[in-house]
Amino acid sequence: MESDRLGMIGAALDFIERHLEDDIALEDVARAAHYSKYYLHRAFSSVLCTSLYQYIRRRRLTEAARRLICSQASLTDLALAAGYQSQQAFGDAFCAMYKCPPAEYRRLHVFYPLQLPIRLHPQAALSGIRPAAESDIPAWMTLLSQVVDGYPRLDEAEHMAWLKARIAREEALLLISGGEAVGAVGFCRSTGCIDYLGVHPQERALDVSAQLLQAVRVRLSPLLHLNLTTFRERDPADPGYRSEWKRLGFQEGELLVEFGYPTQRMIGPVCG
Hints:
The protein is an alpha+beta fold. The chain is about 45% helix and about 15% strand.
C-alpha cells in the first residue's frame, strides 16, 4: 500500500536527520524503516526522485554550510561530521556544490541550503491549478523549503517580495493536494519567463511540472516562447532539473551568471 511505502520513507528520513553526523550505512537506515535495503533504495528513488545517497550527501553539506556560518568549528571537524575522511575531500565536495571553498563561504557569512529536510504529506487528489492569493503565501513558502535544491543562493526575503508582486499581477499559480501546496509557478506575462517553478518531491514523478507549464501557456500570447534558467550542463549541484526541462521540450540558450551562480537559459516551444 502507498501509505506503507510513505511510512517506510518517512522513517528513513527521520533516521537520517537523527544521524547526520554518524557513519550512516544503508543497512542501518533500512533497519530503522523495517524494510530490506534493496526495497528501500528503490522506493526512496521512485517516490522522491533522488537517491538516498545523494539526499544524505546534500543534507550533510547543507548542515556543514550552516555550521560554517553559525559556529567556529574547524574545517577538519566539519569534514568529519559531514562524512569525509579529510579536509581536502570535504573542500572538494563543498566547492563542487557551493561554487566556493568552505573558508570563503565562511568569510562571506551568508547561509543558503542545498537541501532542507523533506517533509512528506499524505497522498490526496490534486486540485485544479489556480491563481495564488495573498492568503496562500504561507503554503507557498512552506513548499519553497522543499524545493530549494533547484534554486541555489535563494534569498527568502527577496522571494517573498517577488511573490507578492506576482500575486498582484496574477502571475503566480498554485496546485493544492490535501490542503497543502505541492506545485507552484511564477511567471512574467509579457516575456514568457518562468521565474520560479517548484514541485514537491513526492509529486515530481507525476508530471506536475508539465501541468504547471501548460497552465502558464494558456495565459500567454501564442507568439511567446516560454523560457527559464537552470543549472549548467554537468553541474554536480543539479539534482536533475536540467534533464527535466529538456524532457519537456526546452532547448539550450545563452550561458548566464545569476546572483553569482553559473546558469543557462532554456527556451521552450511557443505558447500557441
